[in-house]
Amino acid sequence: MEVLERYLYEVGRRLPVKQREDIVKELRSLLGDALDARTQGREATEADVDAVLREFGSPAEVASRYAGERYLIGPRMFDLYWLVLRIVVLCMAGGLLIALAVELATDTSTIDGALRRLLEFVPNLLTAAFTAFGYVTAIFFLVERASARKELRMPLETKEWNPKDLPRIPVRVDRVGPVGPIVAILFTLFGMWLFNLHPELVAFVFTLNEGTAHLQWIPLLSTVGLAAYLPLWNIGWVATLILQSFLLAKGRWQFGTRIAHAALQFFSIGVFGYMMAGPSILDPNAFVSEPVLEVLNTVFGMQFRWIFAVLIVVTFIDAVKSIVLAVKGRVPQA
Amino acid sequence: MSENESTLGSLVSELRRGTLVLSVLSQLTERQYGYSLVQRLSGQGLFVDQSTLYPLLRRLEKQELLDSDWTLEEARPRRYYVLSQAGRRLLADLTREWDLMVEVQERLLGRSDPEGKKE
């Protein structure tokens, strides 16, 4: 009978703790019945037990029948999980690439240092990717476990759907692939990081004297200008992140997103106008520190503000285009 | 040939899986313990894998279609299952559905006259 207890232990080991004792007790009773039926009153031999257990099936198989289907992340959440996982891993890889580029650009040490950074990049990337994968999976697993109770479960179909509500197949201009939004999100995040946390990195970089490897950093941004404009930029960037995430999820431009995009562009025009008229974003001191820059300033500084005029025109055209496409999308096509 | 056989095999087991709950419920108007139910079913020609049947009984109990209790007999505790109130109702509904299905299949297979057929 020892084999039978070993068998029951192996089955029980694979069962959910809550039901383990009860199921094992029932299995012991059922196996006893099966054994009795086989022996018909005579003493059970090892061969009898062997045959009965074989008929029942392997411990893993029996336990899996009791446990039902088990998974880390169920079909209800898999689509969302997959989307989030892709965004997180891609954004992280992009972020690390940008960080690498910044490090390489700002590293004033030897070639060896740069080479080491390049070599370390791939293992770092892999480690970070697996870490991100682990975190996302763990979070979704916890949500899955928490929603195992029926009342908390996310319904597969949230509401009755009507075939008439199926969106039109997007025309070519409306289609949005994943690359565009992801690149936009990455650059926006990079901009937020750079201008909020490290504005000093926006600088003229050059070697001061021939022969020395030292790089000279002249920060370009004026503190006054930055204090005036950064809050506005942040508003625009957050709006961009929301809009791009939406585009990424929907995979197409719609009336709402077109209008939101146009609104965002008009907001940018306002900011550009303010920057053109308000305090300079560039630090005037940066241009007098070196003779080279002074020359640059006289050539380039005069025209600097006109860049905003160009930006305003370009942005305006884009905003109008967006509105036209939004309205056109509303008109039923022949 | 063998591919055909395995297709048939999987289709037959699908059919059996679909009717298993009805088969089991039908035999539980009286209390039964696991092994006695297996024998009862096989005595009437339905051979069910024990490792399929026993978890199914627990699942039906969890769905409150069956009641169960432990009884000590022949020096062995046994778990007896019997239809609950809800189980009885379900059995009646499911039986009606089954009759309808048989009727339709018979018609589809050309073994009975189509209803309302006008000559």
Topology, element by element:
The complex is a heterodimer of chains A (334) and B (119).
Chain A (H helix, E strand, L loop, with lengths): L1 H12 L3 H23 L6 H11 L2 H9 L7 H32 L4 H36 L32 H19 L5 E5 L7 E5 L3 H28 L4 H23 L13 H40 L4
Antiparallel strand pairs in A: 1-2
Helix pairs in contact in A: 1-2, 1-4, 2-3, 5-6, 5-7, 7-8, 8-9, 9-10
Chain B lengths: L1 H25 L5 E2 H10 L6 H13 L3 E8 L2 E8 L1 H24 L11
Antiparallel strand pairs in B: 1-3, 2-3
Give a brief outline of the structure.
Chain A has 334 residues and is an all-alpha fold. Helix content of chain A is 70%, strand content 3%.
Question: What does the model show?
Answer:
The complex is a heterodimer of chains A (334) and B (119). Chain A is 70% helix and 3% strand. By secondary structure, chain A is mostly helical. Among the domains of chain A are: 2-67, no CATH class; 167-178 and 222-334, no CATH class. A two-stranded antiparallel sheet of chain A has the order 1-2. In chain A, a hairpin with a 7-residue loop joins strand 1 (203-207) and strand 2 (215-219). In chain A, helix 9 runs antiparallel to helix 10 (291-330). By secondary structure, chain B is an alpha+beta fold. Chain B has one domain (2-108): Winged helix-like DNA-binding domain superfamily/Winged helix DNA-binding domain (Arc Repressor Mutant, subunit A), CATH 1.10.10.10. The radius of gyration of chain B is 18 Å and the shape is globular. The chains are: A mainly alpha (334), B alpha+beta (119). The interface between A and B is medium-sized, with 18 and 17 residues.
